[in-house]
Design goal:
mainly alpha, 3-stranded antiparallel sheet, 2% strand, elongated
Length: 380
Amino acid sequence: MLYQDLDKLGEEIRRTVQNAVDSRDFYSLNQTITNTVNQATEGIRKFSEQGIYKPTDAVIPPLLFKRTKGTKVQAIIMMIGGAVLILSMLSPFVVSVLDSIFTIGVRAVGGALLASLFGVFMVGGGVLFGCGRSLLKKIKRFNIYIEELGTKEYFDISTAAKRLGKSSKYVLKDLRKMILKKWFLQGHIDRQGTCFIASHDVFEQYENMMLQLEAQKKAKAEEYERQMQDQMSREKLDPKIQEVIKTGDEYVKKIRECNDKIPGEEISAKISTIEFLVDQIFDRVEQNPGCVSDIRRLMEYYLPTTVKLLEAYAELDAMPVSGENIVSSKKEIEDTLDTLNTAFTKLLDSLFQEKAWDVSSDISVLNTMLAQEGLTKDDF
């Protein structure tokens, strides 16, 4: 009701001023000033008693936004002051204009000067009235934003824009101004400019989520780049070597799938170790294709048997009951996995034997050269 009354007040002032100018009867104009002041004062008293903003769902903590009671009273006073200034200056302004038009000499000049002075005051009153009215509209939008929050601490900017009949760009700019002026004490706008967030806690959660998404996106990009590089490297290898590596990748995938089916933490750790070792073995074959003959037994027997044992364990583990035979078989498979881990570790180490020889040779040559130059510890 307050906004409707203020709209009517502005229209009444405009209409009364126009009638006074047309009829040159300023008696009713002065009466309008008195009535307007009384009406506005009474309105301020009522809003002071009732409170300016009473949310229907008082679930948002008051710390998230400021109370607009004092601001609204200030806006009403600005409108009243502007209206009073306009109306009080209108009568002498009109008289001065008439004097400047229908008289001559000094009185005409004086009338023109006074008309200019009164006109300046009227413009000032109009500016004051306009600022007050603009502030009231802003408070109305602010209360609508509060209603949009409801039981949440965020809302979609496009939804608020539709409710106000404004563009999303307008609402975004409006919210940023309110945040800057501390109307929303903890307000934030998301990175895309599509969502308003009313609290620091929710915004922190949003930022953490965005960081996680960015990390996942970066990880996927790095993984894709690594796969592309691996593919380019493999395309340069002998087709037989490519087939070996492809088969190895398939075994690694099967081992991982078996691990996903088995919930036990201890055995899952053993399977993860096997998966890592097998993956490293085939990476080494890719780096040094000359050692492919060293993994023949691995390809023909060890890996197929490993996968077979893991699939059997997964089947036994899924049984609704655990009899003596099931428990015994699972224990035997678990012990075998320990043996396989040891064997795969030794196999991986043996694949780097040539590299170890190269390193040892380089170190020997380096020590010989240092000794010849007199730079070893004994020489000092």
